[in-house]
UniProtKB/TrEMBL annotation:
It holds the Pfam family Aminotran_1_2. One of its GO terms (molecular function) is 8-amino-7-oxononanoate synthase activity. This is 8-amino-7-oxononanoate synthase. Residues 35-376 form the Aminotransferase class I/classII large domain. Keywords: Acyltransferase, Biotin biosynthesis, Pyridoxal phosphate, Transferase. It comes from Nitrospira defluvii. The lineage of its organism: Bacteria, Pseudomonadati, Nitrospirota, Nitrospiria, Nitrospirales.
Amino acid sequence: MFKEYLQKLQDQHLLRRLRTIASSTGPTVRLDGHTVILLSSNNYLGLATHPAVIEAAVEATRQYGAGSGASRLVCGTLTPHEELETALARFKGTDAALTFAAGYLANISAVPALIGKDGLILADRLCHASLIDGCRLSGATFRVYHHRDMNHLEQLLTRRLPGKPTLIVTDGIFSMDGDIAPMRDIALLAERYGAAVYVDDAHGTGILGETGRGTLEHCDVETRIPYHMGTLSKAIGSTGGYLAGSAEFVAYLVNTCRAFTYTTAPTPAAAAAATAALRVIRQEPERRARLWQNRHHLAQGLTSLGFRLAASESPILPVIVGDPDRAMSLAHTLLTLGVYAPAIRPPTVPASTSRIRFTITADHTDEHIDQALAALAQAGRALNMI
């Protein structure tokens, strides 16, 4: 069974294999004995390798050990966890926050805790897989609206049964296209029709908004959206997920989220690293400014070369290729030219939209970007893509 399935994937150019990077995930990495420019990391602000973040993780490991020992409700809550949740609540401007071992766990646990089989979930078509899984696990009636299509969302809201509990679910920044959810319009519809809104801001946290608080700050709807979720593994440079909100909301999650109750707590190192990263975000706003400068540089270069870009508004810059085999060929050619950016293929993205999903960070230099664009020009011409 396994062999036949894998062969089928191979024949369709959809087989995935792991590749080992022998270095930290900086702007360049060591891969197969060579130093290459990395253009596929979500380490947007470069905080995974920031000296203060690393030192905080090392010190927490020395003081508290490598593991947390148990789930948070048994004996796994340690001082670094409490310090992180206090820092997150302050950062997000909420009463409280709760952390999880992974953003995926937060979504598949929190959504079912918020709505059950008597409710209705309306989710954007391009929501992250963890959100979709959480929606299905809830047992609620589940409907998908066209991507960022507020007319379709309103149609679904008007068709629901009167008084039916309703939760609108969306990403803040969509991870494969890089565009931003129309949060003001979503908030307006939610208020008009008496629905609640749950936002996964994994890719917006740390990079959007005047102070980096994320998509809700960027769209000026922080006080209008009750359920804020994000991750610690992207711009924050550590690992884990969180939800932020009122003290009652967080207490409710502690008592209802199965992935919180039955999962060992995040490591002390991960929690301390994330707390340190939040301090850096506050103290070094120039990192965010540099990220957006780099994003403009790369986006302008890709467009000038003639590549087909998705409608991105973020440091995620997908070049749409279409055919998975051609996407693999482009990724392979780029790697031979010193740029590592793997092909993204179905089922991660819809059929016929295979792509190279370029991501830029604050730590990339102008020289890195210019070298990458030169490689893209050479690869694109060699493969008749530009």
